[in-house]
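Work Package 3 (structural annotation) set out to generate three-dimensional models for the target panel prioritized at the project kickoff. During this period the team completed the workflow that converts sequence records into discrete structure tokens, so that structures can be stored uniformly alongside our sequence database. As a representative example, we reproduce one entry of 133 residues exactly as it appears in the project archive.
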Amino acid sequence: MALNLRTSARTGIVQAIITDAGSGAKLKLYNGTRPSGVGAVSGGNTLLATLTFGSTIGTASSGALDWDEAGATQSNGSHVNGTPTFVDITTSADAVVARVDIGAGAGNWQFTGTVATGQNVTLTSLVFTAGNA
């Protein structure tokens, strides 16, 4: 199925993600096989790092969510060593709003390096674009 949306509709989608995530939203980086949909993470996955945002995760414009990278805080002492394979965008109460694969190719977020205990995860140029397929 092909679906194309005009820019205002795509912007509305990413604004809905921002609104649904709300204040105190989190990015939770996991390794292991990505669960389908946005259901619960299983015992086969390891939470590597949690980054928490203040009032908002970012802004919506031109069909994209531009993340507020500087607005993320983290406790790097609780990070677990490993390479993330997917990330959950959650509410402050850990309800999954969206799940994104990490890797190469369209629809994936790129991640360079690994998560390490005691080291901050650095976000640079993080954008979530609602696409036309």
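The mean pLDDT is 92.
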